[in-house]
Amino acid sequence: MFGAKAIAATALRMQQTRLEVIGNNVANVNTTGFKAPRLDFQTALYTTGLNPSFPRSPEEHNQRGHSVLIAGIARDWRTGNFQRTERNLDFAIEGEGFFVLQDVNGEQVFTRNGSFALSVEDEGTFLVNGNGLYVLDPDGERIEIPFGIDSIDVRDTGEIYFISNSEVVGTAQLGLATFVNLKGLEQTGNGLFRHAESAGERLPVGAGTLVRQGMLEGSNVNIADEMTRLIRTQRAFQLASRALTLADEMEGVANNMRR
């Protein structure tokens, strides 16, 4: 009975983790640029009592499973719905790719959240995100805003034009990047991702990637899908809980037979 209790207890822990992932998705339904993760399962190790190639008989126990394990968390990278803001420093990426930022340690991080602002400093005025991280150009340099401009115009290619008195007084380029294996990116919080070895080579974005000014990309969480997963997870949790209870009751009966 101990094996049955251990299997049921493991299933309960895994379903609890799945509930946490679903809860996190629902909580971030309004988070800009959020990409919903999904928890995948795999069977645990099997023990082999006899060679499986032998003919089976009622008294043989060839292979026995040991519950379920987490196979990994697969993130949905589909583009979320665009939300028009009409704010000149809001940008959304249509297609694959990330904005490139510089974190507090000077390392490059990547995000789909294009809600930017201006930071006025002694060295100049720079384009930053909501947490004050610098937005970088393709060369990894901070994007500096010329003094006294009237507006900023960003083209679909990510090229920035600084306008003063209806004339272009300077240009810059938003740094955009993608990776061979998006699943290998390491999430650090605040909608940021870090390049990990498992993500493979960093690549420039393709011709199909466009930058939309005055818009933000919303979360790609599908509430209907999350509710369906929630119901299935609750049912699986109930079944595992019932299996644990039955295993405990059977063990209690066996122990009482010895008295």
List its salient traits:
single chain; 259 residues; alpha+beta; 7-stranded antiparallel β-sheet; 5-stranded antiparallel β-sheet; 24% helix; elongated
Q: Would you give an account of this structure?
A:
With 259 residues, this protein is of the alpha+beta class. 24% of the residues lie in helices and 36% in strands. It contains two helices and 21 strands. Strands 7, 8, 11, 16, 17, 18 and 19 form a seven-stranded antiparallel sheet that branches. It has a five-stranded antiparallel sheet with strand order 12-10-9-6-20, with no helix packed on it. The longest helix is centred in the C-terminal third of the chain and has 35 residues, at 223-257.
Mean pLDDT: 88
- The total of helices stands at 2
By secondary-structure content and strand pairing, the structural class works out as alpha+beta
How would you spell out the order of helices and strands?
HEEEEEEEEEEEEEEEEEEEEEH
Q: End-to-end span in angstroms?
A: 18 Å
Relative helix content: 10-25%
- Our Rg estimate from Cα atoms comes to 26 Å
Described by the principal axes of the CA atoms, the overall outline is: elongated
Characterize the largest beta sheet: strand count, sense, and whether it forms a barrel. Answer: 7 strands, antiparallel
Low-confidence stretches: none
The overall strand count is 21
Report the sheet-strand fraction.
Answer: 35-45%
